[in-house]
Each structure stands twice: as structure tokens, then as C-alpha cells.
Amino acid sequence: MIKITFPDGTSKEYREGITSLEIAGEISPRLAKAVYSATVNGEVRDLTMPLRSDSTLRLNKWEDDEGRHAFWHSSAHLMAEALESLYPGIKFGIGPAIENGFYYDVDPGDGVSITDSDLPAIENKMKELAAMNLTYKRKEVSKAEAMELFTRKGDEYKTELIGELEDGTITLYSNGNFTDLCRGPHLPSTEPIKAIKLTSVAGAYWRGDEKRKMLTRIYGITFPEQKQLKEYLDFLEEAKKRDHRRLGKELELFTFSPKVGLGLPLWLPRGSDVRQNLINYLTSLLRKRGYKIVTTPHIGNVNLYKLSGHFEKYRTSSFQPISTPEEGEQFMLKPMNCPHHCEIYNATPHSYRELPLRMAEFGTVYRYEQSGELHGLTRVRSFTQDDAHHFCRPDQLREEFKSIIDLVLYVFKILNFNDFTAQISLRDPEDKDKYIGSDENWERAEQDIIEAAREKNLKTVVVPGEAAFYGPKLDFMVKDAIGRKWQLGTIQVDYNLPERFDLTYNGSDNQKHRPVLIHRAIFGSLERFVAVLIENTAGKLPLWLSPEKAVILPISEKFNDYASNVLEILNNSDICTLIDDRSEKIGKKIRDNELKRIPYLLVIGEKEAESGTVSVRKQGEGDKGSMKIGDFIAFIRSEISKELAD
RNA sequence: GCCGAUGUAGCUCAGUUGGUCAGAGCAGCUGAUUUGUAAUCUGCAGGUCGGGGGUUCGAAUCCCUUCAUCGGCUCCA
């Protein structure tokens, strides 16, 4: 007998060799139908794997990431089986489960292409195969056997993968006629896969390397119930309505013009107001925290960027240098603010007493992003960073870093960004040539970040290879409407630029010392931040950010005089207000202004004109009753200060 | 930049296999109406069907090319 311990701490004896699926079945037959994988002693396994010794066991259902993962991974194999039967000779790359569903990278062969219009046929084949309830069979093989099998099949992608694996660790999974190199785990059979939807096809470079062949990536998602699929598709439909590109147009926030250029956003008056509100708010926070605001030009001599290392690193992703009438003189549109700020630092001598020096700028920068990467306001070629550089003594670094984490969390809380990921982005240890600076500096900086995050009890994920070329960073990622993650805030530790720019301060020993540089942004860029904000709020911005706080709706033209009085009073009280004096019925005016997401609608008619009041209707919530004009002003002010309160 | 899809009035979309197919709704402008909490009625105006080239007696529709957008990949200081 072996002892199996469950997550709640209870344990029970079972015969040796029992499977997790059988244990689930003993607990209840319904549970057996709802589990998709098992976590045995911390490792995710097939449900059908026999248990040979005392173990901890967790049965993973749909609600568990590990459960869905197995479900979708098995679905990827099911799709592969369908593809192999529909496209004989098709070759397979990799086919993992992802956050929402799965994909498989395939090479259908020269001259054969799989497009959106082919998806229904593949989907139908999958349904047909799933209905056969075929089992997923696991087999351990030697490296030689695996190599032989896939060489015979002519699957050069698989053989490349096998070549990199350790002998003795290789497993194959088969479902129907399809056999794949795979670590697993998988479902016992295709039986639970009831609802299938292939969502899109896309190109994807083999092994993520743009120098290698582009394979066809087919994305799909499956569910145990048809109803769940419908809910998922409905969610995607709803999410489209929150797309900032759509709302930006509808709400007249920003636009793009091909005549101006790709990726160069034009902020309309309403969008500019939102942007300015963000700038004003953050500026007031920065003043309180001892930041100095600076302003620097939009261009800089090309030598500045040669010194910083940016020129070499980003040669092809920058706007090319601007020549002047002078021979041999060249300037660049600034792709970042750091070098300018370093030179501001260098303009005066510094004492250890005045550090940390916090230098901030809403700096507009220009980067020549590849055309295929442009995306609404989230990826543009000109954007304004809420940039700052903290020049500190080494002994101040940790505290300074932590205080910036606090600032990011504070601002995110005010804006209700609760669902973010804090990501520690480190150097890729395999590819050190991508980075500048000594190993010693890198190790020091990476430790600084890891420890600062730990001291703040920040839940983080560590991702190697995501660091900036001059230093590691802590990035704050927030999701858009359909779940794509975007980096907003970032805090970066840099020992390298201070050396390149020969930054110094006088220590208490009257010797020159090297400061450490922290780069940081809270919003990241105003463009991307506004985009994510729009998607998170579905365009219903908080009152303090809203370009207009209210709109006055006179019942009829008879009350236009009183309405314009109210308008004047409110605007003179710094409550930006509009008036809708069209000759329309009140219902129509309410509908139109509700759709424009104006926070408060003020209905005005005979009653209000007589009593000096306004009837207040809150966007999305309906009638709130009437108020004296002065009370409404006080109400709006208190609502705004509530939003901005700690 | 790469793969795939898409591109018809300001917006959302109809326009079967090439032949009154250049349309509708909303927005806009006109008049009428003067309205009490999510769409009043009338009339008008709007597009070289993304651009360019080709096939054809004839192209929004077929072909080529180019640009842009969307979904991914790559990249993201």
C-alpha cells in the first residue's frame, strides 16, 4: 500500500500502482470526469500514470491552470492528427497550450498554404476524431529510436528538437494515427473535448528566429462544454467594443493620418485634455516627492548617442540622422531622454549631500518601429514618456528603487489597475553580446532589483532576456481588452551610462565617486497608458480625467437662457461643461450624451429654471434627482478629490 | 520587416457566378416640431468602390502591383 496526501492535508492508503484517475473515480465518478491532469509530488503528470510510492496528489480540473493546460495541449495534438489526415506529408514544429487555448506550428509543404477559409474543414475533422474517444498513449523511447522515427517521417523540425534532448528523457504521445515528440501530460482520451474553435492562422518563425523559415501557426481553443465556447466568443465580441482604436475614434480622442505618417498619433482636443490631466496629476505627485522637472530638445547630436551606445544598438530602428548645412554635422530625433539628462547632470558639480537627484521630463521621443509592429496607441513611432532619472549614491540605490515601486503602485491604485504583473527582466545569460557593461555591474544591478522587489513583498515573475541593453529592469505589465500584456511602468538599474558619461559626485572624502542611475517611468508612455486606460474602463474615464465633467440638456429652446447661465457658472468654476441645445427631444439628447460617456448629464426645464437647480443624471446610472447649482459644483469637486484620495 | 486576411460615403455595413450595383442606416446640413430622463418627422447633400496598371464590348466584382488596416511572428532603448 502507498500513502497519498491531498492538498487539504488529508491522506489515504491505496494499492501500489493505482492511477490518479482511479483515485479520482473512487472519490466520485463525477470528479473522474472533471479532472484533466494530476500534480504528483509537485510535478504535473498524466492521470493514467501509476503511482508507485507515497506521494502528494493534486487533481487538476478545468479551474486549475494545469488542468486547462493538459486539456489544450491534448487539443493541439488532436488538431495535429486532423492536419495530418487532411494534409498528408505536413511537418510539425511545436504545438503548446497557451493562456487561452493552443496553437500548432506546421509546415504544410511547398506551394501548400493553410488560410482562414480552411479552418472549418480542420475543425470538422477534429470533431470527427474527438468523437471517436481515442486515447492518448505515452511511450518512453531512446534518443536513437526517436531520431529514427522522425527521420523516417521526414520531420526535420522534430529531429532538430530531438538532437538537443538528453537521451533517456524522451517521450512520445500518440493519439489515433498521430505520434508526437512530447513531454506531456495529456488527457486520458479525447472524450472531454466537446467544443472546438480554430480562431486564426498566422505566420511564425521557426524557433522564433526571423532568419529561419516561417511556419504556419494555427490557433484554436477548446472547451468541455459548448456553452463555455459561446461565452468565450461573446467575451471576444464584447472586448472588441472596448478596443481603444475604436473608442479613440468614437470618443474623438486621437487619430492618425497617412499624410502625417505611420504611427504618429494626432491627439484631438478631448484626448489632449485627458493627456494633460495625467501630466498635471503626475507632476503634482513628483513635486511632492522632490523631483526636478527639466526640458530638453527633441534632437541631439549623433555623437551623443554614439557615446551612450544607443546609436550602435538601434541603428536600424531609429529615424536616420538629420544633416545640417554644416559639413559632417548630424543630429538625431531623440529616441530616449537619458543622454540629455546625463548632460544636465554633468552641467554642474554634485556633492554626495544633494543625492539622490531626481530629474523628470515628459519627454517626447521618436523610434522607427517596424511597420508591422505599429498598433494603435500602444506601439507608435512618436510618444511621450513620463521619464525620470534618479542619480544616486550606491548606498541609496535600494531605498530609492523601493520608493519608486511605491509610486508606481500608488498611481496604479488610483487608476484601479489591479490586475498587473510585475516582471523582473534580466539579461539573457546565453547571449551576453547583446548588452553593454561588465559582468560585475550586471550581477550587482540584477541583485539590487531582485532584493528591492523582495523587500517590498512584490509578487514578481522573472524573465531572462528581457533586460534593456544597459541594465536589468522591473516592468509593470497591464492587460488590454483581449488580454494582451503591455509594459507600462518600468524601473531600471544602470551602472553603465554613468561610466560612459563620466558622471561623478564629490563624496564626504572629497574624492570623485560614480553615481548609480535609475531610469524609470510610471505610465511608460502617455500614448500606451491612455490606450490601456481606455480599454480597462471601456472609455468611461474617471471623472478627474474626463475632458468634460458634465453636459447641459435643456428640455426645450425656451430654457436656453437659463442653460447658458448654468454653463457659464460651471465653466467659471473650472468644471468643464458642454451644452446640447439642439432642437431634439430630451430622450434623444440623453441617449447621445450617454454614448459619449460624459460623466454627468444636467437636465434643465421649467422646474429647474424656477428653482435655480439642475437635474443630475449620472452616466450609466440614471437620474439622481435635482441639486442647487452651487451644490452640484461642490459635489463634483468632492467626487474628484475622492477619486484622487489615497 | 515576415505570414495570412481585409479595404465600398465621416461611421457601421448591403452589393450572388463581371451587365440600371453605386445602395441602406447612423452622423452632417434643411425645414417642421418645443419636447421631462436612452433614438420625432421632412427634404438635401456625401463615394474616380484604397491607389496604379491589366483582361474584357463592359470591372466595386477577375488578374498583377502598390499602399494602408487587422490577427500573429520578429522587434520593443
Description:
The chain is α+β, with helices and mostly antiparallel strands. The model has no long low-confidence stretch (mean pLDDT 95). Helix 3 (65-86) packs across helix 4. It contains 20 helices and 33 strands. The two termini are 58 Å apart. It folds into 4 domains: 2-61, Ubiquitin-like (UB roll) (Roll), CATH 3.10.20.30; 66-239, Threonyl-tRNA Synthetase, Chain A, domain 2; 254-537, 2-Layer Sandwich (BirA Bifunctional Protein, domain 2); 550-644, Rossmann fold (3-Layer(aba) Sandwich), CATH 3.40.50.800. A hairpin with a 2-residue loop joins strand 10 (170-175) and strand 11 (178-181). Strands 16-20-21-28-25-24-22-23 form an 8-stranded mixed β-sheet. Strands 2-1-5-3-4 form a 5-stranded mixed β-sheet, sandwiched between helices.
